[in-house]
Amino acid sequence: MDTVQQIEQRREAVLVQMRQIRSMRSGSITEQSVMVRHRSGPPVRRGPTAVHRPFPGLEKGTSNFSAFSNFPGPPGSTAA
Description:
By secondary structure, the chain is α+β, with helices and mostly antiparallel strands. It has a domain at 24-57. Helix content is 21%, strand content 30%. It has one helix and two strands. It has one helix at residues 3-19, and strands at residues 28-38, 41-53. Strands 1-2 form a two-stranded antiparallel ribbon. It is flat, with a radius of gyration of 17 Å.
């Protein structure tokens, strides 16, 4: 397959994923990891998970980030 065709197909796939995002809320999406202690071993890192942080003064609420989780994190992040 031609490289241009591969890029166009990947672009279309990303556009389809973006259309699945139901709403956009003001704020930022950041990664959060937590250290968890186990009885039988050393602490282990769990995460990263996506966390919505609303801008100050906005109503707080819960969101569904399943569509967001399909996108890679920023360059240099550990998200896949």
